Amino acid sequence: MIKRSLILTIVLIGVLFWVVCPAKAADTVKVGVISVLSGPLAVIGNGEKWSAEMAINDFGTVLGKKIEFVARDHAYNPGIANEKAKELYEKEKVDVIIACPNSAAALAVAQQALIHKKPFISTSAGTTDLIGKRCNRYVIKWNYNDYMLATTVGLWGAEHLGKRWYTITSDYAWGHDLLKHFTAALKKKGGIHVGNDMVALKTADYSPYILKAIKAKPDVLVLLNVGKDTTNSTKAAVEFGLKKTCKIVHALLFGPNIKGAGPEVFADDYCAMSWYWKVDNPGAREYADKYLKLHGDRPHFMAAAVYSATWQYLEAVKRAGTTDPEAVIKALEGHTFRDMFANPGYIRPEDHMQVAKAFLLRAKQPEEIKEDYDYFEIVGTVPAEEAYGKPGQFGCKMKGF
Amino acid sequence: MDFHFIFIQLFNGLILGSIYILLSLGLTVIFGTLGVVNFAHGAIYMLGAYAAYSIVTLLNINFFLAILICPIIVGIIGMLLERSLISKLYKFPHFYNLLLTFGMMFFIQDAIKIIYGPEGESFNIPQMLGGAVNLGFMIYPKYRLFVILITAFLALGVWLFIEKTKLGAIIRAGTDDSEMVDALGINISRTFTLVFGIGAALSGLAGVLSAPIQDVQPLMGMDILVETFVVVIVGGMGSIGGSVLAGLIIGELITLGVIFWPPIATSLMYILMVIILIARPRGFFGRAQFFE
């Protein structure tokens, strides 16, 4: 008898869930973030996760529905990213996935978005394949890309920093890509590329390369590398006194890089970025202050992009009046907006690239840093059309739904 | 080709060679004496860099004192590890200790990540050694000259210690036949602890010296560990002279590669290793018992 009622209860609970769950899902909008939340790169991922949470809290409700949030760690691994994307779309039934650093990981998530016919807003992967050969209707590319980083410093630098340029490039697909875009931009402005070295990843001693660069007598040295390689190559350049005769430009230079190695290493170096917390966009400072209060740090541009992407997605849901993926994507395509991140920003319908003007930053001397985490000064801008190239130049053929 | 430029580059190659020598000396002494392939060596190197950071930046102690203190701290940590863990496995086949040290590497890395955070710490050249000095044929950073000199002294010191002192004689004897040495009334297990401590201290010193010119972060030992093994294998496992020679050759080889054909620069050391392993598996001055 007990057994029978037990079975009955289980069946009843099951039926109840089956009835209640879809009803509940329809009453909320669910945003998912996949990023790197563990390991040395967690400084990127945590900022993205926090910013998505902040945007959701600030937004409140959309179409009278509660907004739910879920985050997953991909540990910078494309395989895990693929699994997590599947889980979020299928089990968690998210309406959108945002963020996802690491280009290979973002391409995997983009594929899952296409399979599940749900939107994915890629904010932190640099590859132009997302808006090129492997673009699809469900993927929106927010924030920077590799073309923009290299082109911006090439165009602006050739005008303001000097004519003779020497490059030191990390020898893998990313470095080669950046070098190609960079030299093209340099040529456009009449700069001279006096030499290049391809250097293996994680090279400990950059001094022989720096000696070669000194011999070429450049006005500007470009370091197309990231992380540990950035620090090691810059330290060697400082030691050999290269900075006395020439400027250093970085492909990618983060606040955390500078915090790690010390501002004196990177003082007076230049880099391109899509956003900096001191930019005078509406609401940028409020966001940066709130971020500092909640998390004890200033947001980096990856974090700001996630805030903006989350906010604009919710805005698009509001405009569309539904969370239906096709309607929301149509509401985003060709849309112009002004927020803390982009002023103005525009989502190109041809390849789904979100474009805005790009910034040139100069790393401050240690004595210029008056406030915590204030590592850069904005010294120039490049218009969106020049920084992001022409839609379609990366080979995207956007298909219908 | 500009010979003056090549000469400058070759001189500069000494610095890379010096760091390799310091690291491989410790590794080779430990292997030669204890028969332990110490995979935690890179992590111990990283501990040296973090010790320097803690002492110089956090406690505001002079860098030159740190060069003395850090190796001692790291050496003591090494001895504790040997006593508590590694020594328990000597009676088992080699790969037991290989696995143990492999695990220790991850443990040490993660411990540092928890204590100091994963981003790395800022550590720059001390003011006194900053700037450059004119050597006549070139202007060279003072700090790099300093590292080359320290390495030369240390290599000589370690060699003299092993070859000319009584303790060195015991270590050499212990390597050949530790039971016999034990039977002669010498406490061989204490000697082993000391040797591991010395090896760890040398690695810690390499960490201190490379902290100002590299990125101080928890994984810094990971990449250099592989290169150090190449140096030790080429030089001959357990041979001090071999490590010095191989360190210098590989440092210069990479530098020459950068001048003439950069894409292959870092592969050259592995090509050399393959040639050595085929032609003379024991390495330059290694003993035949291990590989031939």
Q: Which pair of chains forms the biggest interface, and how many residues does each contribute?
A: A-B, 34 and 43 residues
Helicity range of chain A: 40-55%
Order of strands in the sheet with most strands of chain A: 8-7-9-10-11-15-16
Could you state the oligomeric state of the chains shown? Answer: heterodimer
Q: Report the average pLDDT across residues of chain B.
A: 87
Taking strands numbered 1, 2, ... along the chain, how are they ordered across the largest sheet of chain B? 1-2
* Count of individual domains of chain A: 2
* Beta content of chain A: 15-25%
Give me the Rg of chain B, rounded.
19 Å
Low-pLDDT residue intervals, each spanning 5 or more residues of chain A? none
What would you say the CATH architecture of the largest domain in chain A is? 3-Layer(aba) Sandwich
Broad CATH class of the largest domain in chain A: Alpha Beta
Radius of gyration of chain A: 23 Å
Distance N to C terminus of chain A = 55 Å
Structural class of chain B: mainly alpha
Would you tell me which CATH topology of the largest domain in chain A applies? Answer: Rossmann fold
**H and E string of chain B:** HHHHEEHHHHHHHH
Q: What count of helical segments of chain A does DSSP give?
A: 15
**Shape estimate of chain A:** globular
Structural write-up:
The complex is a heterodimer of chains A (401) and B (292). By secondary structure, chain A is α/β, with parallel strands linked by helices. Chain A has helices spanning 2-26, 42-59, 78-90, 103-116, 146-160, 173-188, 207-215, 228-239, 242-245, 255-261, 263-266, 284-295, 301-320, 325-332, 384-387, and strands at residues 28-35, 61-62, 65-73, 96-99, 120-122, 139-141, 164-170, 192-199, 220-224, 247-250, 270-273, 336-337, 345-347, 354-355, 358-363, 376-382. In chain A, the strands form three sheets. In chain A, strands 8-7-9-10-11-15-16 form a seven-stranded mixed β-sheet, sandwiched between helices. In chain A, strands 2-3-1-4-5-6 form a six-stranded mixed β-sheet, sandwiched between helices. A three-stranded antiparallel β-sheet of chain A has the order 12-13-14. In chain A, a hairpin with a 7-residue loop joins strand 12 and strand 13 (345-347). Chain A starts with a helix and ends in a 14-residue tail after the last helix. In chain B, helix 1 packs antiparallel against helix 8 and helix 2 (41-58) packs across helix 3 (63-84). The relative contact order of chain B is 0.20. A two-stranded antiparallel sheet of chain B has the order 1-2. Chain B starts with a helix and ends with a helix. In chain B, strand 1 (132-134) and strand 2 form a beta hairpin. Chains A and B meet through strand 8, helix 7, helix 8 and helix 10 of A and helix 1, helix 9 and helix 10 of B.
